[in-house]
Amino acid sequence: MWISKGMACGPCSAHAACDVSEGARAGAPAAGVAVEPDLSALAAGSDVVAVVVRTDDEVLEVADVVLAAAREGATLVLHSTLRPEAAREVEGRAAKV
Q1: What is the pLDDT of residues 41-67, one digit of tens each?
Q2: Are 56 and 83 spatial neighbours (Cβ–Cβ below 8 Å)?
Q3: Which of 74, 73, 68, 1 is nearest to 36 (CA)?
Q4: Cβ(97)–Cβ(67) under 8 Å?
């Protein structure tokens, strides 16, 4: 499972992806990646959720949706350049779920 914002869907290990970029979504099937427009549904059906977005605010926004929908024991991986405080904020939010 892969979530990105305006970047190419379809990392080598992704089975499904959610992306705001129409171009990235269009290219995903050719890479063998299913496109799921509903982030909550994608998170709920995934054991590992990899998030690639550009800003701390985007990380926090996506993490809130993923954490609310993810199954117990799921892993949230942040592949974004963000401030350490934002990563700790996500950690704190995850601990409350």
Answers
A1: 999 998 889 888 889 999 999 999 999
A2: yes
A3: 1
A4: yes
Amino acid (1-letter code) at residue 11: P
- What are the pLDDT digits (tens) for 72-86? 999 999 988 899 999
The residue with tokens 């350049």 is 81
Output the CA torsion sign for 65, 75, 80, 32.
Answer: negative
3-state secondary structure of 64: helix
Main-chain phi, psi angles of 65, to 5 degrees: -65, -45
Cβ atoms of 2 and 52 within 8 Å: the answer is: yes
Q: What is the pTM of this model?
A: 0.80
Which residue has 């690639």 as its token pair?
52
